[in-house]
Amino acid sequence: MSLSYHGSVRPTGVRRLSAVVVAGVMAIAAVLLAPRPAAADTPWLDVSDDGYASFSVPAAYVQANVGQVSQVVIEGNFGPSSGWAEFGLTRRGDVWSGVLGPLKPGLYSYQVTGDDSKSLKDPTNAAGVASKPLWSTFLVAGDSARLLADAPEGQGGKVETLTYEVKKQERSALVWTPPGYQAKGPKGPKGYPVLFLQSSKGQSATDWLDLGRAKQILDNLSAQKAIEPMVVVISDGDGPDGDKDLKDLRKAVGDTYNVLRDPGHQAIAGVSEGGSQALRAALTTPGRFAYAGSFSGLLEESAGRVDAKAVNRDLKLVRLYTGNVTDPAYNATVRLTKALKQAGVRYDFDGVNPDGGANWGAWQENLIDFVPRLFHTVSDHGPSAGHGPLKGEFTPPPAGTTPTPFVSEGGFVTFETTTDFKDAKHVTVWANVAPGGSWLRMPMSRDGDRWRTTVGPLDPWFYYYRVIVDRVAVKDASNPTKVTSEPTWSTFLVPGERSRLLSDVPEGKGGKVESLTYHSDVANQDRTALVWTPPGYDPDRAEPYPVFYLQHGSGQSYTDWVEMGRAKQILDHQFLDGDLVPMVVVMGNGNVSNFNKELLDNIVPAARAHYNVSSDPSQQALAGLSMGGGQTIGVLKAYPGRFAYVAAFSAGFGGGTGVDVAAINSGTKLFRVYVGDVTDFVYPSFMAGLTTMNDLGVHYEFDGVTPGPHGWDVWQKNLIDLAPRLFKR
């Protein structure tokens, strides 16, 4: 079931979307976005087929279990590189709700938290994490996550608990046996090879099942005959004596299961500290394991003291894995590879996972890559597809030495506070880094008397953020950028081809933005608009310039299209690229009780008095976002034909009473409408507006949803699409 068009309707001229399609999408949107009843047994989470996660948390349940709260977030691995982040919900009546997505295929974990510290489990989701009682999980299906799904009934292996002793203390491990496994016996196979799979310090063996999806991965690889039949032993990362524990575990496995005990049929791997333990066991005492894998391992010491000759003789495979620079193992891997090369130890490197940090999403991929390499000869020893080389250690600037955020190569961004919040309890950076530009709060860690975090990789684009300190929003004092209508916001740009139109053009090459002061009879005060004139603007040109009136949204003002919408940069680039008709763009103040009068009696006359712009309707355009989009549609209805080019971003058409459809269709050369995806809260009303226009016969263009929420990522893309279409028909 698709919940968005994603370009499925691409008119080449003025066309109308099918009312049947619109009605169907509206019905889907209503199911997805409507607040749910405040009952604990009503599912709090609904995941659509295309990856949108809709959360609806009853306020009464939250209050009954953790008390009254002022905010509720969903904490989960939704951040860049699958990092932990907070997704804020909005209180709507009796329900805290929000829609996040589209999420990439994969496994997600989450918990519900009020006021930073009052956490609870989703009682309507039975998928839990044994070691994290408050966590729940859900799987977003997709081809890239097919190995994480349950294998068909009856085709998987079995997982059992093995109990053993270490220094007279009882310990346990989990053991996966392959489909068709045969125990010891005179008629059975001679034995199976065995992989010892380690968890990390502070983790449980069950995490490999609940978060690593090890059973599903092994089941599916086995069903595909992509791996040798083997026994996999999973242990936690809190052994009282690592080497002794491992020795006793190997003995217990050998005594209990039909496994081969010779080193050539023994493998070991682990995550983080478990990966370090695996490498240490294989490298420092060669002859026990023939295969070793380190998933985000932190081993640095002892690599230079190994017996390279013995290691190269006895180990058939040593394979290293690391995430990107957000993985604490990244720098450790840089140093380890240098030490191994210097010592002459042969090893494989899977390459740097560009989109993975130190988390289960990356480690699932590591297991999928590692296990098929065991217990037979393989010819491919290179990195996984899309993985890159190590480029030296990653070291952000020392605290307090540079304005923040600090943008590193590859889109990694380091945020840092001043020392003003050294006594704070909970600090996050709130930014438009979620899919499509939705907002996430990423936890910051205390670093001396400051708070700091590095996130990424972020795609090249324009970002905005604020710091949340103990639930209070504050401005990043180290960032000189400002947003007039949002005093706590700061901005930054991640450069790249994708964000080229949002970047500054070379100095002296772009147009000019000037302030235009005009008197408002509606507001009874002098007001200001910002006006962009194209490069080479000639106030005495014989032919007046076309003029485009561009409006902001509610809670915003005339400065927002320049400070947040990057209108100057977009228009500059498109003009220099030859895509834009030379025009004047007027960004007025729409915060008035009567916008029609403000526009026609105040803003338009002031623009004509101060700039060489046309009064011909065919040379005038009007567009706006959200509230400004609604105002634009109001002008279209009240004064059809006054503006030949009309567009609305994230705004519905409204009712159809009294609409002169014939005048709109004959007097409008282009009426183009835009909306974000289902995370845009106006999506249902927008779709209702399409139905109204279809029923009335209004001619319009709709090129499908713009992926993203009710935010600037969407509206920047809308302006990028619209501006080159103006004054060309």
UniProtKB/TrEMBL annotation:
InterPro entries: AB_hydrolase_fold, Esterase-like, Ig-like_fold, Mycobacterial_A85_antigen. Signal peptide: none annotated. Gene3D superfamilies: alpha/beta hydrolase, Immunoglobulins. It comes from the Bacteria. It holds the Pfam family Esterase. This is Esterase.
